[in-house]
Design brief:
The chain folds into 3 domains: 39 residues; 141 residues, no CATH class; 235 residues, Rossmann fold. The strands form 7 sheets. Strands 11-14-10-17-18-19-20 form a 7-stranded parallel sheet, with helices on both faces. The longest helix is centred in the last third of the chain and has 30 residues. The chain contains 16 helices and 22 strands. α1 packs antiparallel against α2. Belongs to the peptidase S8 family.
């Protein structure tokens, strides 16, 4: 039977579905009709402060009265901005100043965004925010208590509050219906354990797919290091797994990578007239350092050979330009060093000025392939159109890697048809701390997005697989009292064999190119809880995904 209450419930349900499933234009058409400007019911369905760098409480209270917001918002986006508080004033009887409930900072974190979210809730009557994006990466970030106050009762479904190492209990208390979650991690194992515990992210029952990639690889890396340390017999690789990082150099002061570097070369000229070069152990933009960190994160036992490219910054395009000539020389240097893997987190477009150098790069790539070197390069991140950038365009023996979102889908700027595999490449947090024990205040974080990130992870994954296979060969020989047979290791350094191995790590019976590492690397970690530590290497040696007959 019709009544106003049931009609309002249906209306609210439909509105929620429209805002949840439709894009902005389609949702407003459905809610307000084609003549939206003439509709007295029209409301703004999002709140976005992109481009705002300064904000004050008085501006919010007095300058935004004209905002007509829906009680359900598709999203709220808050950039890195501080809200300047107004001086405390005497509240009228029965009234409270907007910030009366906000405690002064106790030194444990910011609280100023409470002003903004309180205004949304109380002044603009916003009841639900489906997606929240807050840039809170700069220190000091907001306290957990402040975040709870901001989002409590708002029904957030897509959580992207960009604070590092955020306590999972905050999310589960404030937004138990979260279905999509973005986490920002500094590399602390204690945080990973907290997220993975029963009282951690597992409490978010509606989470569509918990992001396992980095967690899985970090846990396996820790397990592998412990397995080697506690083994009944000490093993040492006969042929260290070497990865050439061809990029803008690597910061030698970064302790996460400095002990893993086995030299390098620079092809970057600082001043040709005076014959001055930029050293390979300096990374002007920090990109090469970040890529090296990611490789080491996945494969802690890797050895790095650093090759610095010649590049120029193009202010008009806002990006760096790599010279094909230096890239060709770098690939040849990697061949001369007899590396196992070449990681190339960059692309070069062919033009009239560099055609000859591109041919030299292609020739070097072909030479590396003939030597059995596994090569990984980044997709161009240019959307749905054929990718004709180099080095990928010049060879079918190079792994072309694309970025994926946290839940495995190809990023919007990647066409999965033109890549071999997808790995995490959106909003990946990399600690930018050189770990200087004399000055801990130098710690910062970078959030990196792009197929270059995914390429570094793919290179690290291939290195880890080679490392585990060789370790398994040596372990079995020790266990059986025989000579070391490295044929399985050498065979895996073939392009087609590594493709087959990566394919086995993708979802079974699926066309997805996303490498779901947990299908392989979770098992030995879980089984280790029931095995004696001195036998853990047997779990590594028996990983069937890396065998040709699996």
């Amino acid at each position: 039977k019709y009544n106003e209450e049931s009609a309002n419930k249906i209306k609210s349900f439909l509105k929620l579905q429209y805002l949840r499933e439709k894009n902005h234009d389609d949702a407003t058409d459905l809610l307000y009709g084609p003549q939206q400007c003439e509709s007295s019911f029209y409301r703004q369905i999002y709140f976005d402060l992109f481009g705002v760098s300064t904000l004050s409480e008085s501006h919010i209270k007095e300058g935004w009265n004209h905002f007509d917001l829906e009680d359900v918002l598709q999203y709220v986006f808050i950039p890195q901005v501080r809200v300047e508080r107004s001086p405390q004033v005497m509240a009228a009887p029965g009234r409270h100043p907007l910030h009366s409930s906000i405690k002064k900072s106790d030194g444990l974190g910011r609280t100023d965004l409470i002003i903004l979210f309180t205004w949304l809730k109380e002044t603009k009557s916003v009841k639900t925010i489906l997606k929240v994006i807050v840039d809170d990466l700069e220190e000091p970030s907001h306290s957990d208590e402040a975040i709870e106050t901001c989002l409590s009762g708002m029904g957030v479904e897509v959580w992207d509050w960009r604070k590092t190492d955020l306590c999972s209990e905050v999310i589960s208390r404030v937004s138990p219906d979260t279905r999509e979650l973005h986490l920002y991690w500094t590399g602390r194992n204690a945080v990973l354990r907290g997220w993975s515990e029963a009282e951690g992210l597992k409490k978010l029952r509606k989470l569509e797919q918990q992001h396992k990639w980095i967690t899985t690889m970090e846990e396996f890396a820790e397990f592998l290091q412990n397995a080697e340390t506690r083994a009944w017999t000490k093993l040492q690789l006969q042929r260290p797994v070497k990865v050439a990082v061809i990029d803008d150099g690597v910061d030698i002061n970064d302790q996460a990578v400095q002990q893993r570097i086995d030299g390098g070369r620079s092809f970057c000229h600082r001043d040709k007239v005076q014959n001055l070069n930029e050293a390979y152990y300096i990374s002007r933009g920090g990109h090469g350092t970040a890529m090296a960190r990611l490789i080491c994160k996945v494969c802690p036992g890797v050895r790095l050979y650093i090759l610095k490219l010649d590049e120029h910054f193009l202010p008009q395009q806002g990006k760096r330009q790599i010279t094909a000539k230096s890239a060709a020389k770098a690939v040849q240097a990697a061949i001369d060093k007899q590396v196992d893997i070449i990681s190339m987190s960059w692309t070069i477009e062919k033009n009239n000025n560099n055609a000859e150098d591109i041919r030299a790069l292609q020739k070097a790539i072909e030479a590396a392939a003939e030597k059995g070197i596994l090569m990984f390069c980044a997709a161009a991140d240019q959307g749905i159109e054929p990718d004709r950038t180099y080095p990928a365009a010049g060879s079918t023996s190079v792994f072309k890697i694309g970025a994926a979102e946290a839940f495995g889908n190809a990023s919007k700027f990647v066409d999965s048809h033109f890549v071999n595999f997808l790995l995490p490449g959106e909003q990946v947090l990399v600690d930018d701390n050189v770990n200087n024990s004399h000055n801990q205040n130098n710690s910062t974080t970078k959030v990196l997005t792009g197929s270059s990130v995914a390429t570094a992870l793919a290179s690290g994954l291939a290195a880890l697989i080679l490392y585990c296979v060789q370790l398994g060969c040596i372990y079995r020989s020790k266990d059986q009292g025989k000579g070391v047979d490295l044929k399985p290791y050498e065979a895996l350094k073939d392009y087609e064999r590594m493709v087959e191995t990566f394919d086995r790590l993708c979802p079974a019976k699926s066309k997805s190119k996303y490498i779901t590492v947990w299908n392989c690397f979770e098992r030995p970690v879980k089984m280790s809880k029931e095995w004696p530590p001195d036998k853990w290497l047997e779990l590594v040696a028996s990983m069937k995904e890396f065998r040709a007959d699996s």
